[in-house]
Write a structure and sequence with these properties.
Largest sheet: 7 strands, mixed
Distance between the termini: 111 Å
Strand content: 5-15%
Number of helices: 37
Radius of gyration: 38 Å
Strand order of the largest sheet: 6-9-10-4-11-12-13
Structural class: alpha/beta
Length: about 1350
């Protein structure tokens, strides 16, 4: 380009700059005013609301809402010290346990950082020489230097990628150390149970293990890397600066950085607390999704989608509100930090760079060679000063990063401390404990033992009882009287508050000599063999279990068909495959394998037939095992020598069961209540029922023999010509990635004029503003060099003033851009979450996704972690697309003005070639990232599953086994993450070299071309100044262009990584859409209108095939009419399909053939019925909320008030609506004999407790019946929902249902329920055969 044209451009730039000074001054004033206003608003709102002032990351205690200012200041300081203390403890742990490999990684990182610093120093020198060579147009020297420059750039790319790889491996090593350390305590002495169910200080440990630990380790390793680089660069460039310039520059830099750092620390919000609170809210939100997954079938039966959606949205909204506060704090603080450390610091750096060239020993002489030498020194001196500022700035903001990190550190350290405490000693009781101890003997004895719940309720007081080897004890009592709790104390799950316990085995847990079969059966994920030997592993077996041994064990419980149904080595989630009765029988087979001295049977046969129960008792006796049985079946008295009766108020009594007497002899009694309570009345009823059972001959004279059943219908014979219809698997319609991206775009930005579109427009405006300011800075850099050559100090001072104004504008634009990007991510997360939840919680889609999908879908992981990561990465990608696009357009125009079309052609040719090369060598990052997220979800799910089944696992002593399974999944995750790191390392070398380092060499080439074509008298100082300005400006423009080009090339890699997340989220959306539309693949071609017949008065099955998802026919052409007043009893062996009939009736499973009609679910006010059909599932479910919420579920309180008013025929809603509802609910509680819950809870109806842990299984089942009575449907579907209650309570509940006019359809194994039914549907063998019988007395 001709010199005249460049001079015109320079003059135009100067006039343009002068005309914009007032604009810049105004913009800076607005920026400062806006930042000040934001800060004042933040401080005012924080003082006014104080939402986090009393939050402590180390405990959940809350102080007074209104504390004195001095107290809050002292607390703030103490909290900071506490957070750093936790951080120091974790750092010490990591250093002490990293071992030789960790030390090697750390030393390797130090070596890489030192080598990188040396290479950077040499590169800065070479680039100074290149500038001089281009200025002097010395082509041979230039090409020698450019060759060295290319080599140095490649080595730097290698160092950079290797540094990232070592940092990644260090992060994985840190995570492995902390996770293993947590596991070592967490799985010891049942700490996993005590933490969630007894201690209560940490409610979501899985969030800390699976989320907080990896984030902490990742950020810590990055801080280690950045601080190592900062220290190394600081030392190196301090030495280099002192070698050729005055040391005063070091002190000036240090003074500025320290002053800016002190100012920043004074303004810094409590990021540690904010981050800790955010993680807590993330954990609470995630826990709701996990809970929905665990209880999916029960929630689907209840139709509780709306209530669960309400809970999820409330937690999500709380999380979003807090995240907005965090973003606001980051925004205004970012403006202060960027202004002081980045932009104003850059201006100070320019002063320190240029000052020695005006008056120091670097002042140029008047010769051309001297000025060329000055340009070379200026280039190197600039690198030195900038590197010093960057290194000291990095160290100064480390305090903020450590403050943020301390939020994670507090939560992890708290988890470590509490898990260690719980793994070593018993948790301290809230009550005063007296002397208590355990000792070892070959019998079990309780001496003065007191059983107290974690909430302080006394269940058993001063129990004294001895069970000899060979003796059998039966424990009875009403629900919630402390039967299971007695063994929680025996097993060490609950503390021994007072008294003395003698038992076989070492320690305080149940092991080897005492084997526990829990109330809620537990099946581990694994093979069938693993279920039988649980909690042992294959390595722990003394005698390996052979196939013949497995056949024998399974034959004893009539489960030998499992060997044919499932491959022997296939790992299966048996909890989803087997019915409750089959799981209970598998638990008994497990007992037969272990053959202990004592067996504790905690209502573990409630879902099996009476005959099967009798066989179990006979088999256990034949093994010589002493039984301690908890049961509500009086028939079991015949198999026990002693009966212990509890009343739930602390009282108890012991009776001998003598063969020569039909009555139970009372041998000891302890009653602490002078007046009889309702609970003790219930206990007396239970005692009388058990006493009277001895008069009958247990199993031989059951009530069932008093009734005659005539067959009125039966299954048709097998027609082999008719093929079994295929059970339809839920199948999404997979779309190509571009279509998924288009669908995502429609969700995230439906129109340009909505809120997200406005934010995108604001991002674009800010990006254009930043690009314009970058162009002005580039022009200023060139002007600065010219003023130095011309030694125009006054002009330079004026230039510094403009630079300060630009710093103010930049310090507003950059944080605002980051803030808008984060707000964009948050807005997209809200939209995408609402979009998915809309279908996820409709038409039981959540159940179908988990139980009927053609592939495994971890919806809870995708809706929480994956979705948050996707929107965060996507907002960064969109911003990353806007910025380089604007930069390339702007700086391409600048390049064209400077170098003509040839420079632009070189730029775009390099861009296209580089993009093509990188696409050819890029690994499948999308699939790798998707697999990593899947493994993260599996690891977390294993921890969530453990917390859900903690009590059963603790009773089994399965901590070691669960630890092995969890760590196996963790090992898979670490291995995959390491593979991904290695691929990123190898690709990173090429990526960094092509997108970041090599373009600098192209820049130098273009600079040489420009210098060679530059016209003018090179001896004139004006020409030299013009050339220096042009070269510096050209270097800045070309560098900005190539940086933008590098960003565009990097977008390809980022999009590949992002595609994995897009595929996971929108694969879930496709499955949800299929669930809403009823798309079940090929099977969807079946006739669709089989469920659209509604009958006001009957439930009718007409030739309906009941088929499982495993393609097993359970009932062939089932035909049955259920009319009001004629209740139906569904019987049959375990696994025969009783619950499956209800799944088809509820619509959880599709109708394969035939037709089904039933009453509508709409309210029938005239009949006084609140719903047509109401389901009470086999597995009780307690929702989150108050005691009132438990009964009215799945209605909200507002809906329940309307129902109660309509039921009572009252008029408009009044202030006494709540009283009407509560009086009605109180009557229901009295009917189900749970009115003592109101007395026990301090807050009455508004008590908000963890009901699943507080209530026994029988109490939860009675709550389920309370829901039935509240809703008062025409038909009640009762799926073995009272098998954990006593016989008298069960009969009482069914009598109430009959009196209320509820026609029940019951699945049960208890003969006592026969009188309450008119028809029996007997599923004979689970192979399709059935009989319909009328019941006559």
């Amino acid at each position: 380009m001709p010199s005249l044209q460049l001079l015109q451009l320079t003059e135009h730039g100067r006039s343009f700059l002068a005309s914009r000074r007032k604009t810049l001054l105004l913009a800076t004033g607005i920026a400062v005013a806006g930042g000040t206003a934001a800060y004042v608003q933040s401080r005012y709102s924080s003082k006014k609301n104080a939402p986090f002032g009393h939050y402590n990351g180390l405990n959940n205690d809350r102080g007074n809402e209104e504390g004195e200012p001095n107290d809050s200041i002292r607390k703030k300081n103490s909290d900071k010290k506490g957070g750093l203390k936790s951080l120091k403890v974790l750092a010490a742990i990591l250093l002490s346990k990293m071992g030789k490999m960790g030390a090697r990684d750390l030393l390797g990182l130090v070596a890489i950082v030192v080598l990188r610093a040396a290479l950077s120093n040499r590169l800065a020198k070479v680039q100074g020489f290149l500038f001089r060579a281009a200025f002097l147009r010395r082509v041979p020297l230039f090409f020698r230097l450019i060759s060295e420059n290319i080599l140095l750039c490649f080595l730097l790319s290698s160092m950079h990628s290797t540094s990232k790889y070592i940092t990644g491996t260090l992060s994985l090593r840190f995570r492995k150390i902390l996770t293993k350390l947590i596991h070592s305590h967490y799985f010891e002495n049942m700490a996993y149970y005590k933490m969630s169910h007894v201690d209560g200080r940490i409610m979501n440990p899985e969030q800390r293990i699976a989320s907080d630990v990896p984030k902490f380790c990742s950020e810590l390793s990055e801080i280690v890397q950045d601080d190592l680089i900062a220290v190394t660069d600081g030392l190196l460039y301090t030495w280099r600066l002192c070698s050729y310039a005055s040391p005063k520059y070091i002190f000036w830099i240090l003074a500025y950085v320290l002053g800016a750092g002190a100012t920043i620390r004074n303004f810094s919000p409590a990021f540690g607390k904010l981050m800790s609170k955010e993680q807590q809210l993330e954990g609470d939100y995630r826990r709701l999704h996990s809970r929905l997954r665990t209880h999916a079938e029960s929630i689907a039966f209840y139709g509780g989608e709306n209530r669960e959606e309400s809970h999820i949205k409330q937690k999500f909204d709380s999380l979003i509100r807090h995240v907005r506060v965090v973003l606001h704090e980051n925004w205004w603080f970012g403006m202060i930090q960027d202004f002081l450390l980045k932009y104003l610091g850059a201006t100070v750096a320019v002063i320190l760079i240029i000052e020695p060239f005006f008056s120091g020993n670097l002042k140029p002489d008047t010769s051309t060679l001297g000025r060329a030498e000055m340009l070379s020194n200026l280039r190197y001196h600039t690198s030195v000063i900038i590197s010093l500022f960057q290194s000291l700035g990095t160290l100064s903001i480390s305090a903020r990063r450590l403050n943020r990190l301390s939020g994670y550190a507090d939560r992890i350290h708290e988890l470590l401390v509490i898990s260690r405490e719980l793994s070593i000693v018993h948790v301290k009781s809230p009550l005063k404990s007296s002397q208590n101890s355990f000792s070892e003997a070959n019998y079990i004895e309780f001496a003065g033992v007191r059983v107290v719940t974690p909430t302080g309720n006394v269940l058993v007081d001063n129990l004294t009882l001895r069970v000899e080897s060979g003796s059998n004890l039966l424990i009875t009592g009403p629900n919630g009287s402390g039967k299971s709790s007695l063994f929680r104390v025996l097993g060490g799950l609950w503390p021994l508050v007072s008294g003395h316990i003698v038992k076989p085995g070492v320690g305080t847990d149940l092991n080897k000599e005492i084997f526990y079969v829990p109330q809620r059966p537990y099946t581990a994920v694994g093979t069938l063999r693993d279920q039988l030997i649980y909690p042992l592993t294959v390595d722990q077996e003394l005698e390996p279990l052979t196939r013949d041994g497995m056949v024998e064990l399974l034959r004893n419980v009539d489960l030998e068909y499992l060997l044919d149904r499932y491959p022997p080595e296939e790992e299966i989630n048996w909890g989803d495959e087997l019915s409750l009765g089959e799981q209970q029988r598998l638990g008994m087979a497990r007992l037969f394998y272990h053959k202990p001295k004592f067996a504790i049977l905690d209502e573990c046969t409630s879902a099996v037939t009476t005959d099967m129960e009798e066989r179990f008792c006979a088999k256990v006796r034949a093994m010589g095992t002493s039984c301690i049985t908890i049961s509500h079946r009086p028939a079991l008295v015949a198999f026990h020598d002693v009966v212990l009766s509890l009343d739930g108020e602390g009282g108890w009594s012991v009776h001998n069961n003598r063969e020569d007497s039909p009555e139970l002899d009372e041998v000891e009694l302890n009653t602490i209540k002078p007046s009889e309570t309702n609970r003790q009345t219930d206990a007396m009823v239970v005692q009388r029922a058990f006493a009277s059972s001895r008069k009958d001959s247990a199993f031989s004279k059951s009530k069932s023999q008093s009734y005659i059943a005539d067959v009125i219908a039966a299954s048709p014979s097998v027609d082999h010509a008719v093929s079994l219809p295929d059970f339809p698997q839920l199948q999404g319609r997979p779309r190509a990635l571009p279509l998924r991206v288009a669908a995502m775009s429609r969700v995230l930005v439906p129109t340009v004029f909505d809120k997200q579109g406005a934010q995108l427009l604001a991002v674009a405006i800010l990006v254009v503003s930043r690009t314009w300011i970058s162009d002005r800075i580039a022009s200023l850099n060139g002007t600065t060099v010219r003023f130095v050559l011309e030694q125009d100090k006054a002009a330079f001072i004026r230039l510094i003033g403009v630079s300060v104004l630009q710093s103010g504008a930049s310090s507003f634009i950059a944080p605002s851009l980051r803030h808008l990007t984060a707000r964009l991510a948050l807005g997209w997360r809200i939209r995408l979450t609402k979009h998915l939840l809309k279908n996820y919680l409709r038409k039981n889609a959540f159940y179908k996704v988990f139980n009927m999908s053609s592939k495994s879908i971890d919806a809870d992981q995708r809706l929480t972690h994956d979705l948050e990561k996707l929107t965060s990465d996507l907002s960064g990608l969109v911003t990353g697309m806007v910025k380089p696009t604007v930069d390339i357009l702007w700086f391409t125009w600048r390049m064209k003005v400077l170098t003509g079309r040839r420079g632009v052609a070189i730029l775009y040719a390099y861009m296209l070639l580089g993009l093509g090369f990188l696409r050819a060598v890029t690994p499948e990052f999308g699939d790798l990232a998707s697999r990593e997220q899947q493994l993260e979800g599996t690891f977390r799910f294993m921890h969530e599953r453990l917390r859900t089944h903690a009590e059963s696992v603790a009773f089994f002593g399965g901590g070691a086994r669960e630890k092995a399974m969890v760590e196996s999944k963790f090992g898979e995750l670490l291995d995959h993450s390491l593979i991904l790191l290695k691929k990123k390392w190898l690709f990173g070398v090429l990526d960094d070299f092509i997108t970041k380092q090599l373009p600098h060499n192209v820049t130098w080439g273009l600079s040489l071309l420009y210098a060679m074509e530059h016209k003018g008298d090179r001896a004139l100082i004006s020409t030299q100044g013009e050339l220096a300005h042009a070269l510096r400006f050209l270097a800045s423009v070309v560098s900005q262009s190539f940086l933008a080009f590098g960003d565009i090339l990097e977008l390809h890699r980022k999009f590949l990584e992002l595609s994995g997340g897009i595929n996971r989220i929108f694969e879930l959306e496709e499955f949800l859409n299929a669930a809403q539309s009823g798309d079940f693949g090929a099977a969807s071609q079946l006739p669709s209108k089989r469920r659209d017949h509604y009958s006001e008065d009957a439930i009718t099955f007409s030739k309906v095939d009941i088929v499982t998802p495993a393609q097993k026919l359970l009932a062939r052409q089932l035909t049955c009419d259920i009319v009001p007043g004629k209740s139906l009893l569904v019987t049959g062996p375990n696994g025969s399909g009783k619950s499956s009939v209800f799944r088809v009736l509820r619509g959880l499973w599709p109708i394969m053939s035939g037709r089904l009609s039933q009453p509508s679910q709409h309210v029938n006010e005239e009949m006084g019925s609140l719903s047509g059909v109401f389901y009470v599932p086999q597995r009780p479910y307690t929702c989150l909320g108050t005691l009132r919420d438990q009964i009215i579920y799945p209605l909200s309180e507002k809906e329940a008030k309307l129902k109660a008013l309509k039921f009572y025929r009252e008029g408009e809603i009044s202030a006494e609506t709540t009283n009407v509802l509560d009086e009605y609910l109180k009557t229901i509680l009295e009917n189900v004999r749970l009115n003592y819950l109101l007395e026990r809870a301090d807050s009455g109806w508004d008590a908000n407790l963890n009901w699943e842990d507080i209530l026994s299984l029988g109490e939860q089942q009675r709550l389920g019946m309370a829901r039935l009575f509240f809703h008062k449907p025409k038909f009640g579907i009762l799926d073995e929902c009272t098998n954990a209650t006593s016989v008298d309570v069960e009969e009482h509940l069914y009598r109430l249902a009959k009196e209320m006019g509820i026609t029940v359809v019951t699945s049960s194994q208890r003969p006592a329920l026969i009188p309450f039914h008119s028809v029996e549907l007997r599923l004979i063998d689970g192979e399709g055969n059935w009989e319909l019988r009328s019941i006559k007395q």
